[in-house]
Sequence to fold (690 residues):
Amino acid sequence: MVPCAKIVRTAERFSCEIHIQKADRSADAKTMLDLLTLSAENGSVLVLEARGAEADEAVKALARLFESNFDDPASGSRPGVGSDR
Amino acid sequence: MTLPPARGRVSGRIASSRESRCLMQIKRGVAVSPGVVTGEVLVLGTEDFRIPNRFVSIDAVESELGRFRNTLEMVWEEIEENEQLARDQLGDQFGAIFGAHLQMARDPKLIAEIEGLISEKSLSPEFASSRVLRRFARELQNLGNQYHAERAVDIFDLEKRILRHLLGERREELVHLTAPVIVLAHNLTPSETANLDRQFVMGFATEVGGHTSHTAILAGALEIPAVVGLGHCLSDVSGGEMVIIDGNHGEVILEPDDATLAKYRELEERVQSVSQRLASLKTLPAETLDGESITLLGNIEFPEEATVCRDRGAEGIGLYRTEFLYLEQNQIPSEEDHYEAYRKVIAANPDHPVTIRTLDIGADKIPETTGELMPEVINPQLGLRSVRLSLRNIPLFKTQLRAILRAAVGGDVRVMFPLISNLLELRQARMILGDVMDDLEEQKIPFRRDVPVGIMVEVPATVMLAEEFAREVDFFSIGTNDLIQYTLAVDRADPSVADLYRSGDPSILRLVRTVISAAAKHDVAVTVCGQMSSDPVFIPLLVGMGVRQFSSSPHAIPELKEVIRNLTIEQAEQIAAHAQSLDLARDVENYLRGELNRICPDLVL
Fold:
C-alpha cells in the first residue's frame, strides 16, 4: 500500500497521463485504488507508459522510484521495470 | 501529443462491469423465527451508523455535492493530522500508512465516482460514499490474497471516517430509531436482541449464530422474523438498501429486484393475515375435526419463556432444556439456582405438566469441571456429553435431581434423561434418582416421590430396543434433531452436508413408527419434540402414525393447532400410510407438503 502511495505522489508531480500495466490490466498511476487493484506483487513485470508533457521525465522519475525500491534501502530485491517512450 | 485511448478504455471497463452486475443477492442461513418482512436495512457494525436517506431531491443535489466536498476536505485534514501524529510518535513507517490512506481519500477516480452517483442518480453523499467504497473493498477481497483482503479493512476505515463526518449530529443509534428497519449485524448479543425496539425493528439477520444461540431463542420469543448464521455478508450492504428476511426458509435477500420484492410483499401480507387469524385460535382446543384431542406442549430454554408458551395456547412444557442454567453463568449452578428456575416454570404452569430434561451438553461447556472430565474431544457429538456426563459426575447430577424433586412438590413435574443409548444408562440414572429420594427423605426435605421418569429417544440403538426400554420408563420423547443426525450420519450445522439432513427420510419414519408401536404395546406415552414437531408439514403424518402429543417451539403452536383442527384421524392415517410407502426423502416431503396445502393452504409458504 505504501509503495502505491509513493507512486501516486510521484506521478502527481507531472501533468501527463501515466499508466502502469500488468498483463491485460492497466492502472492510472495517479489513482491509489486503481493501483491497489492491479495486484502487482514483488517480481511482477510491469509496463510503465506516459503520454503528454514531460512524459520522459515522468517515466524516469518513476523508474528511479522502483529502482530505489521505493526509497527503502534495506531491501535488496527489485521489481522488473520496463518502460516505453 | 494526443491522449491515448487507454484511460477511457480502462475506466469504461471497470464502470461497465459494475453497472451491469445484478445487485440482488440471496443469502442462506438458519431460520430461527418465522415470518416474512421487507424493508430498509440498518447495518450494525462496530460503530452503528445508519444512513438515514438514500436519495436527495433533485434541487438539493448541488448543495449535497458541496457538503460532500467540505466533508472530504475535513477527512483529508484529519488524516494528515493522524499522519503527523504517527510520524512523530511512532516513526516514519507508521506515518506512511496514513499517507497511503490520504492518497486513497484523494483518489480522483473514487471522488469522481461518488460525485457521479450524487449528481446523476441523486444518491445522498452518505449512501454514495458507502456504496462506492464497499465496492472497492469487495473488489480487493475478491483478488483472493491475504494482503489485499486486509487492505479492504483500510477502505472500511476510510468509509467510517467519511460517514462520521457526513452524518455528524445526524448519526442515529439503535435505541433512537424513528422509522421501521431490518437489522443486519455480525452478531447481536442476547441483551441487544432483548432490547430491540419492537415498534421499529421488523426483523433481523446475523452473520454468526446457530439454532441454539441465545439470540436465536430470543428472536423466537420476540416473534419477529429472524435468520442467523448467514456467513460473511455485511460488507455487501451499506445500510438503507431494500432487504427481505424470510424467516420461514432462512433466507435473506439483499437488494431484491422488483419481481422478487412484489412476490415477498404479497407473501408478507398473507403471513400477517394468517398470523392474526391463528392468534384467535388460542382459546380453542387442539382437536381434530372428528373430535380427537391432541396435546400441544412447548419447548423452552429460559424460565421466562414459560409464560410465552401459555400465551400461545400450550398445555404445558414438554421439553425444558436446563442447559442454559449451566451456560448462563460462569460457574456450576447451585441446587438453589436450579430450584428457583424450576419453581418459576412450574408456577407459570400450575395445572399443566412440566417435563424437565436433565443436563444435555458436552463436557467442554461445563465450567470448572475437572481435567479428568475434559479429555481432548475429537468428535463431540459422539463424546462425553449429556447423560453420559451426568453419570460420570454424580455430585453434579444429584444436585440437579434434588432440585427437580423438591420443585415437583408444587406441580405436575416429570423428569427426562437425554441421550440414553443403552439400558444400563437408564438403570444407573434411575438408581441415582432413587438415592437422591432416600437422601431427601432422610433429611426430611419435602419432595415428590411419584415423579414420572422418561427418556429422550434420539439414538438409533435406543429405537432398536424400544420395547425393552418401554418396560422401564413412564414416557418416551422422540428427539428428532439428534435422531436424524445420528441415523443419517449428518451434522446439519455443516453446510457441506446440510442438504443430506432430511426429516422426511423413510428411515426416520420407520424409526418413529417403531417407537410408537413399542410404546403402544406397553402403554407408554410418546411425545415428539425437535424441529420435526414444530413443522406443520409433518403434523398430519405424525398424527396418522399415532402421535397424540407434540412439544414444539412456542411460536409454532398456533400453526400446529390450525393443522389439527382441519384434519380427521382417518385422513391423517391415509396420509401416513402413503408417506410410508415412498422410498425417497424428497418424495415424502413433497407429498406431505402437497397434503398440507390441501388441508391448510395458508400455511404452505
In short: Chain A touches chain B through 24 residues (CB under 8 Å). The two ends of chain A are 27 Å apart (CA to CA). The helical segments of chain A are 2-11, 32-38, 55-67.
